[in-house]
Write a structure and sequence with these properties.
By secondary structure, this protein is of the alpha/beta class. It contains ten helices and seven strands. Helix 1 links the parallel strand 1 and strand 2.
Length: about 325
């Protein structure tokens, strides 16, 4: 099979007939063999009934319905478990992503050799309340991840099948799919300018809060990706530095007091010096960080996937 399309959806009953018909036209025009997975993320309207009605006339349309709303990452992860196509396309169900982009995305994966191609909505039809936070988020993500994409959160993306079968999407990590792919060893990541269409039905399901949660998820992902299997390298390093800073300060304060006493110079109690308590605090924080790293190391070593490595090829 050439292409699998994964469409996470939540309360998009009006757009589904038009979207599925549009995808089918594009696939037929390019002679692609394909399947479409509609993942209903606990919709409260008639979305799932519409999917079942459309399925009756199109056996290439498949679907899964969640009991409740779990989020876009859960929908994508579930869809990725089902796909069989050589190239996997993800797109939103609100008709803001154009299926006409599919042939070129497919070509970039199969001919240009990209592992992942992310869409870039260069001209957006969104209010400034969404575009400005999005630009800030993308700029921060680009800076800390080292991946030079303009739009990390674009729902229209193309993947090699191997990529989606390797990475695990959870929480709100759908915003960081390129970074997940990079951590998994898929470094050839490309970008394509795509059409962004004005929303035709319904309303956006995402608010300003995603700016904060997205940034926190990014920090979490960066930390886990770099130190997940060796947490002592992070906590132990900072803990040791903090402890040595505190110990050095205590020694300086103590030696200074001894010198002044030996020289019969005026002096005060060590406990009257505020720097003494700052030094003790540094030593305590350093010890706590070191112990945190030690406990995290024990947890990491006890993990069932501690020796799980991604094998590209094997000759035996």
């Amino acid at each position: 099979m050439d292409i699998s399309v994964v469409v996470p959806l939540f309360n998009e009953e009006e757009s589904l007939p038009e979207l599925t018909a549009w995808i089918d036209r594009v696939m037929q025009a390019n002679n692609f063999s394909y399947e479409v997975w509609m993942i209903d993320d606990g919709s409260t309207d008639r979305s799932w009934e519409v999917v079942k009605e459309l399925r009756a006339n199109n056996p290439k349309l498949k679907g899964i319905s969640f009991q409740r709303n779990y989020g876009k990452s859960a929908a994508l992860h579930t869809g990725f478990l089902q796909v069989e196509g050589d190239v996997v396309i993800t797109m939103d169900a609100d008709l803001q992503d154009s299926p006409d982009e599919i042939p070129e995305l497919y070509r970039m994966i199969t001919e240009d050799g990209y592992d992942l191609v992310s869409g870039w909505k260069q001209k957006r039809h969104d209010p400034i309340g969404k575009t400005l936070p999005s630009k800030f988020f993308n700029g921060v993500t680009r800076m800390v991840s080292g991946i030079h994409l303009h739009d990390f959160n674009c729902g229209l993306k193309a993947y090699k099948k191997k990529v989606v079968k390797t990475i695990e999407v959870y929480g709100d990590m759908h915003r960081h799919m390129p970074l997940l792919a990079k951590w998994a060893g898929f470094s050839k990541i490309g970008e394509k300018v795509v059409e962004h269409r004005a929303r035709k039905y319904g309303y956006s399901k995402f608010g300003i809060s995603r700016l904060v949660t997205g940034f926190l998820d990014l920090l979490s992902l960066l930390f886990v990706g770099r130190f997940g299997k060796r947490p002592m390298h992070f906590f132990g390093t900072f803990g040791t530095l903090m402890f040595l800073l505190g110990l050095g300060s205590v020694l300086y304060i103590g030696l200074n007091k001894w010198y002044r006493l030996a020289s019969e110079l005026p002096t005060v109690l060590v406990t009257s010096n505020p720097w003494f308590y700052i030094a003790l605090t540094c030593m305590l924080l350093g010890t706590m960080l070191f112990l945190t790293g030690f406990l995290a190391e024990l947890v990491a070593r006890a993990s069932s996937d501690r020796n799980h490595y991604l094998i590209d090829e094997k000759l035996a």
